[in-house]
Amino acid sequence: MSIASPNQSGPAEGAHQRVIQSTIGYFAAFISLGLVSASLGPTLPTLAENTNSLLSQISILFTARSLGYLLGSFVSGQVYDRVSGHPVMVGLLLLLSISLALVPLIPTLWLLALLLLLIGFSEGMVDVGGNTLLVWVHRGKVGPFMNGLHFFFGVGAFLAPLIIAQTMLATGTIRWPYWIVALLMLPGTIWLARAKSPERQLVPETEQGNTANALLVFLSALFLFMYVGAEISFGGWIYTYALKLGVATETAAAYLTSGFWGALTAGRLLAIPIAARVRPSRMLLADLLGCIVSVGLILLFPTSSAAVWIGTLGLGFSMASVFPTTLSFAERRMTITGKITSFFFIGASTGGMLLPWLIGQLFERIGPQVTMIAIFTNLMLALVVFVYLMRFSRRQQPLP
Fold this sequence. Notes:
Blueprint: H1 6-37, H2 40-50, H3 55-58, H4 60-80, H5 85-102, H6 109-138, H7 142-171, H8 175-184, H9 186-193, H10 211-245, H11 250-275, H12 280-300, H13 305-319, H14 322-333, H15 338-366, H16 370-393
Helix pairs in contact: 1-6, 1-7, 1-9, 2-10, 4-6, 4-15, 5-6, 5-8, 5-9, 6-7, 6-15, 7-8, 7-11, 7-14, 10-11, 10-13, 10-14, 10-15, 10-16, 11-13, 12-13, 12-14, 12-16, 15-16
């Protein structure tokens, strides 16, 4: 009987450990992204008071943040294809933590908008980096891990409104809520700093210049434009919507926001095993129909607290797997590089910039109901794009 040398299994075990360490680091980074993403909505009225702004004016923060996210997404496609990803992500996470701590200290709207531009830029680069590097680490088996990645985003987004509501009750200020969230980002950042970056993935020559592939990228980006516009709008405006219609108090509205992100988180947890068994196209169709029904319920009964809660939880649950499943679908059809991922996120960030801003412009002029009307219309357009995307993709051969 022969005994295997420790060196024979060492390299394989070391590679497996690096995969685990990197994956945990990406999950931690996305908890931080969720914390940052869900912090703005519950503090929007207070930030308006701090800067002596109307709600129609304070909505520029969504635009500035999404514009920064758009720029970050565009730049990151070039960065991650050329340099090691982990040092870039660690630096950006530290910048996010510092910037978030400064938000409640800014007394003027234009300075706050500039800070949100910087926050959005950092978010965009971290988001593209986490999604791209996870694909490079897990390749064709990325589906469940992709849903896991976005599940942990939901964890952060679920916790942020709870932390903010309880800390505001205890301190009577929005400073400590932002500072606590900023501190909570540091442990995951330190973990990722200790992990080794994965090898970069390049597009094969046979795919370069492929017109069909370019159209598939465009349609996927357009679909994400519609979807993210709806997600960011609902997560950012549901607090103010419920407050202005009188269906919730300030604390209850914060819990409603947390409920949305909590349902989204639970849905992504459930989607992890489902993604290993169900085709992405079927998951996306079920998700979209659930979104439309949920927002439709709130539209039908806008002043009913029960309907708003049911619709909010249903929407969060239905939206849960849309983004990661779209990326998993794309991975089956093309080679995912930093540049291609950045195109997806450019579409997503543009949607996240335009629809919340539009709602802000119409909110006081038409009334809170415009929030749900805009989101419902956007989701119907997303369904149209989805149908065309599926019809076109069936003509293409998936990657082996």
